[in-house]
Structure formats: C-alpha cells, structure tokens
Amino acid sequence: MALILGLATAPASRQSTLPREANTPISSHGCEQQTSAPGYSRSTKIYDEFTALTHAPSPAMALKHFLAVLRKNWMLVGVVLSIAGARAAPAVGARDGPLYPDITVKYLAVALIFFLSGLGLRPRQLAGAVANVPLHSLIQGFTLVAVPVFVRYLVAPFLYRAGLDRWLCEGLVAVACLPPPVSSAVILTKAAGGNEAAAIFNSAFGSLLGVLVTPIELVALVDAGGASSNTTGAGASDAMLATLGRVFRQLFVTVVIPLFCGQVARPRLEAWLDRAKPPLSEIGQATLLLIIFTTFCDTFSGKSVESSRRGALAVTGFVVLSLQLVFLGAVFILTATTKILRRPLPPGDVICALFCASHKSLTLGIPVMKIVFPDHPRFGLLSAPLLMYHPIQIVLGGVLVPSVRAWARRHAEPAGAEIV
Fold first, then answer.
1. Alpha carbons 350 and 344: distance in angstroms, whole number
2. What's the rounded Cα separation, in Å, for the pair 372 and 337?
3. Which residues, at least 6 apart from 45, have a Cβ–Cβ distance to it below 8 Å?
4. How far apart are CA 295 and CA 293, in angstroms?
5. Strand partners, 26
6. Is the model's pLDDT at 159 over the cut of 70?
C-alpha cells in the first residue's frame, strides 16, 4: 500500500514503473490514450483531448493541444468564423461586392463541389451493398418522404401558430427535404460498428437521388413567398413548373455536368488519387465555407436578422435538437423492434439506418437551396436551421456512439454478427 501511495504522489517528472499494455499509446502529457479500447468514439476522443488540454504541464503544451482540437474540428470552426466575418464586413461578399458571388458562388463554387464529389465517389465500393434493397428503401423513404411530410404538415404549422418566425419554420421544412450526408453518417456508422458498406451506398445514392428529388420537394413544400404562393389553380401549377424548369436547368449546369465529369475523370486519375490522397473533401468543405460567407453577407447587408429574432434562433436550435431525437427514436423503433416489422433488422443495419435516415446534408443543402431560392431576401433565415442541424447531428451522433455500440454488442447474433 505504501508503494502504491508513493507512486501516486510522485512528481510528474518521475517516470512511473507500473506495467502498461504494449499497445497503449502515451500522449504528449504522459497520460495513456486508450484509442484502441472498445467503444472508443469521436466524442470520447474529443473528451480525452480536452482532458489533455486542461492537464497540460505548460502553456505551450496547452496551446498545442488546443490547436490540435481546432484542426480536427476545423469545419465547425470555419462555419462560425464565416458567419462572424460576414457580420463584420458584409460588403465583401454581398451581391455587388468584390467577390462577385453571382458568378464565383452561384456557378463556379457549386460546380467545384460536385465535381470533387464525382471525383471522390468509388463505384466499386458500393457494389456489395446494392442487394440490401429493404434497408435502402427504408432509409431513403424515411429521409426523403416521411420526414418532409411530418415537418411540413405537423411540425411547421404548430411552431408557426406558437409564434416562431415564418422563415425559420420554412427553413425547417427545407432541411427536412434534404438527403443524408456523404461523410458524417458513414463516419458515425463505422465508429459504432455498423454496416459501413450500406452507409456508403445510402449516402452516395441519397445524394444522387437528392439532386432530383430535393429540388422538387423544396418547390412543392417550402412556401418561399414567390409567385406560386400568390396564385391558385392552373396559375400555381404553371408557376411551379416554371420554377422547376429554371431549377433543373441550373442543376444540370452546376451539378449534373460537374458530377458526371468527376466520374469520367476518376478512372484516369484513380492511381494518382490512391497514391497522393489529395484532400478532396477538405477542398469541397472550404468551398462550402465561401458559399456560407457570401450568403450571410447578403443577410447582414440587408439587415434581415434583427435582434428581436435572436430568441427565435435559440428556440430553433432547441427544435432542431428535438427533431433529431424524434427521428432517431422513430428509426430505432422501426428497425430494432417488432412494433412495425415482423423481424428486426440486424444490429449493423440498425446502426446504419439510425445515422443515415436522421442526418441531413449541408454540402448538398446550401448549394441546392441557393439554386431553388435565388436572391431570396430572407435566405439567411431559411438556411439557419440547416446550419444548426449540421453541427448538432455530429455532436449528438458522437455522444450516442458508445451507447449504440454497446447495444449492438448485446444484441449481436451468435452466428458471426459480432460488432468489432
């Protein structure tokens, strides 16, 4: 006992003689990092990083760990800085500003994002997951049919009658129409030990399907205050068809053609892509930050976000979190119990459905919304729920990963369905 107490109170510079597992890495501040432990997730990793930050032996080491955390979460930091920069200098990215967003953003930035998406999409990765039709139908039907209908006809009317800003309500409907993201759903599915191949397929297929389905749903379900909302009967139908025609013409130029060009270029560049591993995802995300910056430059230059709406934005954040919990609960009841299906899905497929069916794509959402609602005076408010949805789904998913993984291990079938 005296020996143990002596080791526990030894100075930090004295090296411990206690045995340690051979594969357990040591952090720069002398603490063991159990990165290979079962259930280790993104949320656990972030917690360990902040623990390392608070226990760092010097200010220089604390700064090093702090910068490491920022680098690993640079996209979320970039969104905050983009909005702050737009608030500080809205004239830079406004429509008549030096960035010329009607050209650089409306066409070039959106086209670059989808060219990189086509270049990074691996068709061979998806071949093994195509046969799981029931899982794919459930995920795509839930995220592109059930969620938009639920939010449009139940959630949005209730919130509007309760006093929430009209454009934030319509922004929630717009979020509901989006497909699953390509990256975060796959990362969380893998971290929780789910069916990664099915997650890759649903994210990629959902993005391709979203290019066609999402614009139609946005025009049909989101009341953006255009001409179609002020007409009835044949006039409304003609206005909707005209809007869809304009939307699909721009989608063809800025989405379909770049996506196709990326897929055509991939076989010729595949060897180089595998060898050099260029940061395609990071380039696309940085381009997305430019779109977010110019969007909020227009918002702040037009003074469309008054101080009276700050409380409404806080309420919207709470609503977004609540909706995600409702979606996760509904998917779990649908796939993991016998309340709806006669036989629950395997644990790996349940995990895939949880994250793919409840997540929404910021990468696809902002460009498509810019195409469907060009020059909208309240676009900042329309896009605000999506900008909240994206970080909340990542943080909430990271928090849930250990619990989901533990549940999957308890329910894994004996015949080889072990969650690793």
1. 8
2. 39
3. 35
4. 5
5. 32
6. yes
Asked if 384 contacts 357 with a C-beta cutoff of 8 angstroms, the reply is: no
Distances (CA, A) of 210 to 181, 203, 246, 256, 263: 10, 10, 17, 12, 17
In one-letter notation, the amino acid at residue 405 is R
With tokens 């299906």, the residue in question is 341
Q: How far is Cα 289 from Cα 283, in angstroms, rounded to an integer?
A: 10
The predicted model scores a pTM of 0.64
What is d(CA 189, CA 45) in angstroms, rounded to the nearest whole number?
A: 16
Q: Which letter does DSSP use for residue 346 in this model?
A: P
Mean pLDDT, rounded, of the chain: 76
CA pair distance 350, 50, nearest whole angstrom: 31
State the number of CA atoms in the 13 A half-sphere of 26 facing the CB.
9
**Consecutive H or E run containing 219:** helix 196-221
**Which residues have a Cβ under 8 Å from the Cβ of 94 and sit 6 or more positions away?**
101, 294, 297, 298, 301
> Is 235 or 311 the better-scoring residue by pLDDT?
311
Q: Are 320 and 388 in contact (CB under 8 A)?
A: yes
Residue 128, pLDDT score: 60
Q: For the segment 120-158, what is each residue's pLDDT rounded down to a tens digit? A: 767 665 566 677 788 888 999 999 999 999 999 999 999
Question: Which tokens hold the place of 171?
Answer: 């922004």
Average the pLDDT over 199-221 and give the result: 84
Which pair of structure tokens corresponds to residue 136?
């794919």
Pair 341, 335: CB distance under 8 Å: yes
Q: Which two tokens stand for residue 125?
A: 């990765």
For residue 396, the model assigns a pLDDT of 85
pLDDT exceeds 80 at position 12: no
3-state class (DSSP) for residue 15: coil
Separation of alpha carbons 318 and 359, rounded Å: 16
> How far apart (Å, rounded) are the C-alpha atoms in residues 330 and 352?
14
Torsions phi, psi of 32, nearest 5?
Answer: -70, 135
Nearest to 406 by CA among 186, 187, 193, 188: 193
3-state SS, 45-87, equals HHHHHHHHHHCCCCHHHHHHHHHHHHHHCHHHHHHHHHHHHHH
Q: Report how far residue 2's alpha carbon sits from residue 104's, in angstroms, rounded to the nearest whole number.
A: 70
CB distance 345 to 335 below 8 Å: yes
Q: Which helix (H) or strand (E) holds 344?
A: none
Longest distance between any two alpha carbons in the chain, whole Å: 89
